[in-house]
Design brief:
With 265 residues, this protein is an alpha/beta fold. The protein has helices at 5-14, 26-34, 46-49, 61-73, 93-105, 120-128, 144-147, 157-172, 185-194, 215-218, 234-237, 240-252, and strands at residues 18-22, 39-42, 79-83, 110-114, 133-138, 177-181, 199-202, 210-213. The structure holds 3-methyl-2-oxobutanoic acid.
Length: 265
C-alpha cells in the first residue's frame, strides 16, 4: 500500500526523519522505493536535469503530469509529491486548482507550490477542496530572474523575518509540509521552531524533519556547479542502489546534512 500523508505525519511525530529524493521516471522510482526512500518528488528540476534547460521555467504542467504518471507506474508504496511548475500556480486559486487536479489525476498525492505570503489564498483554496500542499520557501528557483540567480536567501534580517512569517502563514493556510531551500542554518532552525508541520530541508538544517536532494546531483551527474548542499553519495558507494541506501541511512541517522552542507548567516 502507498504511504499517505498520515504516515509522513507519524514519522514526524515519532522523530524519524523523512527521506525524500526527486524522481522523474519509473525505473528510478523502483530503485528509490526499494532503497527505502519515503517520498519521491517529481520536481520541476526536471527542466534542468532531464530537459537540459538552464532553469525550471520552461517546464509545463503537462510535463510534470507525464513524469508523475511515469513515477507512479514504477512504484507502489512510496509517497508521490509533484511540483506545480512556473505559471501554473501564480494566476488565480481557481486556475491553480485546475492545474493541481491534473497532477492529482496523474497520481500525485500532494502538490508543491513555491512562494510566500502571496500564496496563502491559493493554499487555502486547494487545501479546503481536498488537495494537500507542500509549501516551498527560501530559494524558490522559479524566481531565479527576480532574485538574480540561484542564491542563498534570507541573509538580511528583513528577508529572514519574511521567510519566518510566510512559513507560519502557509502552515496557517493549511500546508501539510514546508520545504525550505538554500537558507542559512540559523534561519532554518528558527523556521523549524516557528512551525509544527514536518519541514523538509535542502541547503537548510539537519534539524528539519526530513531532507531532499535532486537524484542526479547525489549521483554526481549534475551538469552545473554543485551547490554546497549536495553530497555525491555515489562516490562513497559505487552503485546507484547503494548510494540511495546510504542517503536514506544518513538522513534517518541525522548525519546528512552535516555543517559542510549548510550555509552560514
Ligand atoms: O524541483 C525540485 O527538484 C525541487 C527541489 C530542489 C526541492 O524543488
Amino acid at each position: 500500500m502507498r504511504k499517505t500523508l498520515l504516515d509522513l505525519q507519524a514519522l514526524h511525530a515519532s522523530g524519524e526523519k523523512i527521506a525524500m529524493l526527486t524522481c522523474y521516471d519509473s525505473s528510478f522510482a523502483r530503485v528509490l522505493e526499494n532503497a527505502g526512500v519515503d517520498v519521491l518528488l517529481v520536481g520541476d528540476s526536471l527542466g534542468m536535469v532531464v530537459q537540459g534547460h538552464d532553469s525550471p521555467l520552461p517546464v509545463s504542467i503537462e510535463n510534470v503530469a507525464y513524469h508523475t504518471a511515469c513515477v507512479v507506474r514504477g512504484s507502489h508504496s512510496v509517497f508521490i509529491l509533484a511540483d506545480m511548475p512556473f505559471g501554473s500556480s501564480q494566476i488565480t486559486p481557481q486556475e491553480t486548482f485546475r492545474n493541481a487536479a491534473e497532477l492529482m489525476r496523474a497520481g500525485a498525492q500532494m502538490v508543491k507550490i513555491e512562494g510566500g505570503q502571496e500564496m496563502v489564498p491559493t493554499v487555502e483554496f486547494l487545501v479546503s477542496r481536498g488537495i494537500p500542499v507542500c509549501a516551498h520557501v527560501g530559494l524558490t528557483p522559479q524566481s531565479v530572474h527576480q532574485v538574480g540567480g540561484f542564491k542563498v536567501q534570507g541573509r538580511e534580517s528583513a528577508a529572514a523575518e519574511r521567510i519566518i512569517a510566510s512559513s507560519r502563514a502557509l502552515q496557517e493556510a493549511g500546508a501539510s509540509l514546508l520545504l525550505m531551500e538554500a537558507i542559512p542554518l540559523a534561519l532554518a532552525d528558527r523556521v523549524c521552531d516557528a512551525v509544527s508541520i514536518p519541514t523538509i530541508g535542502i541547503g537548510a538544517s539537519p534539524r528539519c524533519s526530513g531532507q531532499v536532494l535532486v537524484i542526479y546531483d547525489m549521483l554526481g551527474l549534475g551538469a552545473y556547479i554543485s551547490p554546497r548542499f549536495v553530497r555525491p553519495f555515489i562516490r562513497e558507494t559505487g552503485s546507484i542502489e547503494e548510494a540511495v541506501k546510504l542517503y536514506v541511512a544518513e538522513v534517518k541517522a541525522g548525519r546528512f546534512p552535516g555543517p559542510e552542507h549548510c550555509y552560514s548567516s
